[in-house]
Amino acid sequence: MKKGLVIGGVLVLLALIIFMMYRGSYNTAVSLQENVDEKWSDVGATYQRRADLIPQLVATVKGAAANEKGILTQVTEARAGIVKAKTPEDMDIAGKQINAAINLAFEAYPQIRSTQNFSDLQTQLEGTENRIAVARQNYNQSVKEFNSHIRGFFNSMFLNKETFAKKTGFKESAGSENAPKVEF
User: Fold this and answer.
1) CA angle 174, 179, 180 (to 5 degrees)
2) 49 closest CA partner among 146, 134, 107, 116
3) Does the pLDDT at position 69 exceed 70?
4) Based on the number of CB atoms within 10 Å of its own CB, is 55 exposed (0-12), middle (13-18) or buried (19 or more)?
5) What is the 3-state secondary structure of 112-161?
6) Computed from CA positions of residues 120, 121, 126, 131, in that sequence, does the dihedral angle turn out positive or negative?
7) Are 80 and 93 in contact (CB under 8 A)?
């Protein structure tokens, strides 16, 4: 009777060990699978940020450049009026126009900054593309961890291949090697 009790105890202990291994493997696989899904969502959120931000930045830079162009055109036309002036009255009118244009330029837009705006846009574009690259790398890393776990020797025997299917890392789309065009 003692021999049967010992064998029964060993079998229960063995079943408990197998169950604990399965439970640990399953829970880790669930956690890694959720991490992969989260990282993919982060990639999508970063794409959405780019889709929302870049058109707004481009429109802002375009508007600032158009405003500066109008101001510079007014100043240039006023200066040209002084050169074309033939009489002192024409010179006086042209001088008043140039003063008004210059005052308007400095009151409405005190500093010509379109070059800085274009530089800031380039910085934002670079930063956005860097965020996308980091999100993709994080996703690929989480896919690697998940796939390594589910393909391990014991885990591949314990885990359901349909529930924990192997994930695919980020794949670039056709033509993605070409940078998107920003047109002004």
Assistant:
1) 95
2) 134
3) yes
4) exposed
5) CCHHHHHHHHHHHHHHHHHHHHHHHHHHHHHHHHHHHHHCCHHHHHHCCC
6) positive
7) no
> What residues have CB less than 8 Å from 77, skipping those under 6 apart?
97, 101
Q: How confident is the model at residue 77, as a pLDDT?
A: 66
- The amino acid at residue 157 is M
With a cut of 70, say whether residue 103 has pLDDT above it. Answer: no
Treating both helix axes as pointing N-terminal to C-terminal, what angle do 2-84 and 114-150 enclose, rounded to 10 degrees? Answer: 170
* pTM, entire model: 0.61
**Mean pLDDT (the chain, rounded):** 78
Quote the tokens at residue 29: 């696989």
Per-residue tokens: 93 = 């009118």
Q: DSSP letter for 69, please.
A: H
Mean pLDDT of 15-40: 89
| Confidence category of residue 78, pLDDT binned at 50, 70, 90 | low
